[in-house]
Recover the amino acids of this structure.
């Protein structure tokens, strides 16, 4: 492949940020399922022992939140909903048939929904997690508040797992997406097909710098 045919989509710091978040999510989700379902208690061994899982689970959760916050500040302006996103949503049946719709920027409407859904659920998980975090914070809250926080934490965790599963499925479905997050580049053909407005913006910046 010609070097000029490659377009940088994610820099090394961006990719590291993404994979730190991903691995933290993996550890937190697996150990959390072990807490929630008795038949999945064996999953708590992902941290070595169930006792270590109970200690490290909240710390890994905080690290995941902090890592995602870095991603939030990097990408929030790319994830604002535009008129083209409404067109994309109205033609979701064409998207399901692997057709591209609208003049998509760096991210399409589906990716934006994942982004905003993840930040909302992570905020819920952080707040509720602090309330139920023993022995550090839970003693400062009344029992009814702790019970409510447990419910919020559980539902938000399940919802986030579903959101991330959709994210992974979409990444596998669109050929070239995984390469972008592993190696950092996409082809110009991929960019023009899936994110035409983003491709044009890159070309304009390139021409201005020449």
């Amino acid at each position: 492949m010609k070097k000029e045919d490659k377009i940088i989509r994610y820099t090394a710091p961006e990719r590291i940020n993404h994979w730190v978040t991903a691995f933290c999510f993996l550890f937190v989700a697996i150990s959390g399922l072990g807490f929630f379902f008795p038949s999945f208690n064996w999953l708590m061994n992902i941290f070595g022992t169930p006792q270590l899982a109970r200690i490290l689970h909240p710390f890994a959760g905080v690290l995941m939140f902090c890592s995602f916050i870095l991603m939030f500040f990097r990408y929030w302006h790319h994830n604002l909903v535009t008129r083209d996103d409404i067109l994309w949503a109205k033609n979701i049946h064409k998207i399901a048939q692997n057709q591209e719709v609208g003049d998509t920027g760096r991210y399409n409407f589906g990716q934006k929904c994942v982004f905003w859904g993840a930040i909302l659920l992570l905020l819920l998980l952080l707040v509720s997690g602090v309330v139920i975090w023993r022995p550090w914070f839970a003693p400062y809250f009344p029992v009814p508040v702790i019970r409510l926080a447990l419910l919020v934490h559980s539902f938000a965790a399940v919802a986030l797992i579903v959101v991330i599963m959709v994210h992974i499925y979409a990444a596998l479905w669109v050929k070239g997406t995984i390469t972008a997050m592993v190696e950092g580049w996409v082809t110009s053909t991929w960019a023009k097909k899936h994110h035409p407005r983003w491709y044009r913006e890159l070309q304009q910046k390139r021409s201005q710098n020449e």
